[in-house]
Design goal:
Elements: E1 5-14, E2 17-27, E3 32-36, H1 43-50, E4 58-63, E5 66-67, H2 72-75, E6 78-82, H3 93-103, H4 109-119, H5 132-146, E7 150-154, H6 162-178, E8 182-186, H7 190-193, E9 199-204, E10 207-213, H8 214-218, E11 221-227, H9 228-235, E12 239-246, E13 249-255, H10 260-268, E14 272-275, H11 278-285
Parallel strand pairs: 3-8, 3-9, 6-7, 7-8
Antiparallel strand pairs: 1-2, 1-4, 4-5, 9-10, 11-13, 11-14, 12-13
Helix pairs in contact: 4-5, 5-6
């Protein structure tokens, strides 16, 4: 069965508020996607539709050409991990893992045990008594071990310290290599997680702003470094993202690709050209005062 995912002219409205506006895009199978957007952009709403938690107000969300809402065959093939409220959960960690194994047909219990050891999860402790970081580690463990063809992590790292997040990232990449599936990572930690993404999707104010391969996206920005006056003359008229100066040296990050002629001119002037970070580009493209949507 194909697990290609598609949103077609999806709108989602809550009362008078439109959370998603005419969203259309496709996700190929077995890639890792980064879903980016500022708070309130509509990321969690979009993911809840894909996980069949809600039905879109209009439009369709499909996997393999089938609508996901109330589709029992597909619902077991989609895993959504998010910051869950476990304050009333009396089950122990081992009970949660056993339950996941019952409801997820591809659940790998031996891999789950490996993750339990990696994250140092206490199997016999009630989930509600875990720290926030441990709760997130449990969610991640269930999400990875479920091995669903469509696996979603919506800010799943909340509460994890940096070493624990690194374990999560490493395990995600290694297990995806062993068992390829579609993985969607919704995050605000762009600078920390950008190396994980094969493609990125940016949502802005409920609309699709951009879907692009990560390497192509990074070509949208260039850093120009060199003697201050030479840099200033070279970047005049270009869209600046930021400027940094140290002594007589200046580095300017610009938005936009340079032509071959501009590359040659930069080399001739002794300027150093480099990449702009994904985070810098994301911040620029989602600035609230910028009213121009970019579609790709």
């Amino acid at each position: 069965m194909s697990y290609e995912t598609a949103f077609h002219q999806v709108n989602m409205t809550y009362g008078n508020f439109q959370a998603l506006k005419d969203i259309s895009f496709r996700l190929e199978e077995e890639k890792i996607y980064g879903l980016l957007g500022r708070n309130g952009a509509g990321k969690s709403t979009l993911l809840s539709l894909l996980a069949a938690y809600r039905k879109p107000s209009t439009g369709t969300v499909t996997i393999g050409g089938q609508e996901v809402f109330e589709n029992s065959q597909l619902m077991s093939q989609v895993a959504l991990s998010y910051n869950t409220d476990y304050s009333e959960e009396s089950d122990k960690v081992k009970d949660m893992l056993d339950a996941a194994a019952c409801y997820r047909p591809n659940f790998d219990s031996s891999y789950a045990e490996h993750l339990v050891k990696q994250f140092k999860l206490p199997r016999d402790k009630q989930v509600k008594k875990l720290s926030n970081g441990m709760k997130s580690a449990l969610n991640v463990t269930i999400g990875l071990a479920s091995r669903c063809p469509v696996t979603i992590f919506d800010e799943a790292y909340v509460g994890m310290d940096a070493p624990t997040r690194e374990i999560f990232y490493r395990e995600l990449l290694e297990d995806h290599a062993r068992h390829p599936r579609t993985i969607i990572l919704s995050t605000h930690l762009v600078s920390e997680m950008d190396y994980l993404f094969e493609e990125i999707i940016i949502i802005k104010r409920g609309r699709l702003l951009m879907q692009e391969r990560s390497d192509q996206f990074l070509e949208l920005g260039v850093s120009v470094t060199g003697a201050t006056q030479v840099v200033e003359d070279f970047v005049r008229g270009m869209k600046r993202l930021s400027t940094r100066q140290l002594g007589g040296t200046t580095s300017v990050r610009i938005y936009g690709e340079l032509s071959e002629m501009q590359h040659k001119e930069a080399r001739k002037l002794g300027l150093e050209l480099g990449n702009v970070s994904m985070q810098d580009l994301f911040i620029h493209l989602t600035e609230e005062e910028d009213t121009d949507d970019v579609q790709k």
